[in-house]
Amino acid sequence: MKRGFAAILSLILVLSLGAAASGQMTESDKAEVGGDFTEVPLPLDCTWVIKDEVIGCCPAFFPYRFTFECEEPVLVRVTDLFAAGDSYWVYDHGELLFTMDNATDYGPTPPWTDDPDTAYDLKTGPWAHLYRQVEPGEHSITIKAMSMPTGLSNSTVAISARPVPRLDVRPGNANNVINLRAKGGVLTVALLGSEHVDVTEVDIRFPLHLGAGGATPIHNLSDPKVYEDHLQDVNRDGHTDLVLHYRIGQTGIKEGDTSVTFMGKMKVPNSIYDWFTCSDSIRTVPAKKVK
Ligand SMILES: [Ca+2]
Ligand SMILES: [Ca+2]
What we know:
The protein is mainly beta. It has helices at 3-19, 27-33, 116-120, 224-229, 248-251, and strands at 38-41, 49-54, 60-61, 64-70, 74-80, 82-83, 87-92, 95-100, 112-113, 129-134, 137-147, 154-163, 166-169, 177-179, 186-192, 209-210, 231-232, 241-247, 259-265, 275-281, 283-285.
């Protein structure tokens, strides 16, 4: 891509970003989404759905609504595919979910791949790619091409949905009471597997943080024997769960807190993508007052 062209494109992008700064679709966008959009159910198993379309340019919507419903939080993953250089805005039920900038750091010929995992990889190239976590429930994703620097009127995009574990504080106990008097006390939590979630896909090479204090597990899960011991079906639903133990004093949980959040990462070949969070409600027993 020529530098002058890139400069004009970024100017257009800046201008259009300004127009949609509220994160809302314009009325004409909404009319488009309400129009002839074909519903495509998105599988909840991380497989990529690829759409290569002549959509004109730009901006222009792909004529699809990618839909799914899930009891778990889901990572919506999107990547440019085939010739690099396109950029996209991604919507959920008509609300802007995220924007993906096009890379400009390649020569006159954009690199090409038909492998979404390669295009999604942060290290391999300039394909626009990004993900966002959406909450449990029903979702309807639409994608708008914002720029296609190759000058062609067709664009290729790949999208996949990756459910992530739910958090269960104190497995087997519905009250989730956390006794802050027990400073050295241990809090057991579980990441719950399900029909759609394999907890062994949680990447234990990356931090498994619990709470605002960023506590890390007491046990060394990089030891395969220790890791194996922490894979249990705590709620007896037939799906393996990952049990984790933390020092309460390191979690940052304070008196009156009503929830606690876990942060970890799902496995992705060669990528630092697919971080996720999950939360559970808690009730605290106050620490002893110092007189
Ligand atoms: Ca519980
Ligand atoms: Ca289970």
